[in-house]
Amino acid sequence: MGVGYQRMLGDSSFPTLNGYAPQPYLVNWSTVAFVKPNESSWQLRYDYNFAGMGLPGLKFMTRYLRGSGVDRGRNDLDQNVESERNIVLGYVVQSGPLKDVGFEWRRIDVKTRYGNGKASGADYEENRLITTYTWKF
């Protein structure tokens, strides 16, 4: 179980170079990113490794992130709220010709609300299938 908090300070979003995702530097980096001017965000996260149940390589993660206080420079937009929910189930092959190949299913639900009336923003849902390979030197 984990809890994270992040506060952005300044008049602009967190800078990135050509869309590079600065994951190691931001606690709440995710699909939404939570990097807007003066945004405060927090997350609640749960991870589980199934190795203790005799299923090495199988992992589960779920988290909820919420950001608020985004400064858009207009008073009618100062109540922006963003939230994201993730469910991740992954497996890394432990032996054989596919050893270290990983497969992951990631479910992402994003909701945004703008202004005092909390009008709907760019809500979306995604399902991603990801394949990875760990190269050991």
UniProtKB/TrEMBL annotation:
A Pfam family of this chain: OprD
Keywords linked to the UniProt accession: Plasmid, Signal, Transport
Coiled-coil intervals: none
Cellular component per GO, a single term: membrane
Top-rank lineage group of the source organism: Bacteria
Keyword Electron transport applies: no
Transmembrane segments: none
An example Gene Ontology molecular-function term: porin activity
Family, per entry: Belongs to the outer membrane porin (Opr) (TC 1.B.25) family.
Name of the molecule in the record: Putative porin
Origin species: Metapseudomonas resinovorans NBRC 106553
